[in-house]
Write a structure and sequence with these properties.
Layout: E1 7-13, H1 17-36, E2 45-50, H2 57-67, E3 71-76, H3 82-93, E4 99-102, H4 113-122, E5 127-132, H5 140-155, E6 164-171, H6 172-178, H7 188-195, E7 199-204, H8 218-232, H9 235-263, H10 271-304, E8 311-314
Parallel strand pairs: 1-2, 1-4, 2-3, 5-7
Antiparallel strand pairs: 3-8, 4-6, 5-6
């Protein structure tokens, strides 16, 4: 008889006490259903990763852990962001289970897609991406910008799965190799395709948030999007180089033209045209310096090699599975 894989469902949370009281039992119910259907091992777990919450999230997680052994939790020493929280859960799980499924705790991702994910793993897939079938619940602005962003990532050489966020199944075998990726600037959805191994996608419908408010503001989404570009592609630097070369050629042609006009007696000074050229070139230079500075800053952070997460508490003994 085939050995059943031990699954850990990893769900990060930050000030989501009102949400996990609802979704926690749903995750447990799904876990027990998969166990009953002989798809996963009975020692599978639901791992909550408290990303330094200031509400009662950790108290609720601790209560869950006392009520049912399938619940476990870890707490970060401070808030470090969604991507770091997911990474903390994955690294905690990699030596303790066979497969992980990361999913947000807000109830927007369809947990029934886990059935197809686990079945795909039984069929030999090491990574299974949860992909949104559509974006009907998004506003026109968010839908348009998201689609444009994924196209931009692909055009820059980033191997991001279209309409995939951080809902995915990953085997422990993949996680062992993923642990060698030591970047501080994390963009997980663009990093896992770099590991390789057999993968597939499962499509699901995304729902409205069950309770509470999203902590992912527009500013945070823009920051994550920019981090995805600059962490996984150096094409913006190449674009700046090409743009600089083009402007240099145009500037050289302009100088020749100005000299010829002066020598032929047709020279004329124009304040407006001069100011426009100065502002245009100054804007290009400042933008280029900003992009280059972003890469220099990321290099600076990477060389520090600071820990990407620090676990302050666990609901279980560290040396136990």
């Amino acid at each position: 008889m085939e050995k059943l894989p031990k699954l850990w469902i990893i769900t990060p949370c930050y000030n989501d006490g009102s949400v996990i009281e609802i979704t926690g039992p749903q995750f447990l119910e799904k876990l027990k259903q998969l166990i009953k259907e002989n798809l996963i091992h009975e020692e599978s777990k639901v791992l909550f990763v408290d990303d330094g919450s200031s509400d009662n999230s950790w108290e609720i997680i601790s209560k869950f852990a006392k009520e049912d052994p399938h619940y476990i939790g870890i707490q970060q020493s401070r808030n470090r962001g969604h991507q770091n929280a997911v990474l903390a859960g994955l690294m905690e799980a990699k030596d303790r289970c066979d497969i992980t499924i990361s999913i947000d705790c807000d109830g927007q991702d369809d947990i029934n897609a886990m059935d197809d994910m686990v079945k795909a793993y039984h069929d030999g897939c090491e990574i299974v991406y949860g992909v949104r079938a559509n974006r009907d619940t998004d506003t026109w602005f968010k839908r348009s910008t998201a689609q444009g962003y994924y196209k931009l990532l692909n055009s820059l050489g980033v191997e991001a799965v279209y309409n995939h966020a951080d809902y995915r199944l990953v085997s422990s075998r993949v996680l062992q190799h993923f642990a060698d990726f030591e970047e501080v600037n994390l963009f997980l959805r663009g990093m896992f395709p770099l590991v390789g191994f057999k993968s597939t996608s499962v499509y699901y419908k995304r729902y409205e948030r069950i309770a509470g408010e999203s902590h992912y503001t527009l500013g945070k989404m823009v920051a994550l999007a920019w981090n995805g570009i600059t962490s996984l592609s150096i094409k913006p630097i190449h674009i700046i180089s090409v743009l600089g070369s083009i402007i240099s050629v145009l500037g050289f042609v302009g100088i020749i033209w100005a000299i010829v006009r002066t020598l032929t007696g047709h020279g004329a000074t124009g304040w407006a045209s001069t100011i426009c050229i100065i502002l245009f070139l100054g804007g290009i230079q400042l933008f280029s310096l900003g992009v280059i500075g972003e890469y220099v800053g990321k290099t600076y952070l990477e060389t520090k090699r600071r820990p990407r997460y620090i676990i302050s508490e666990r609901t279980y003994e560290e040396d136990k599975n």
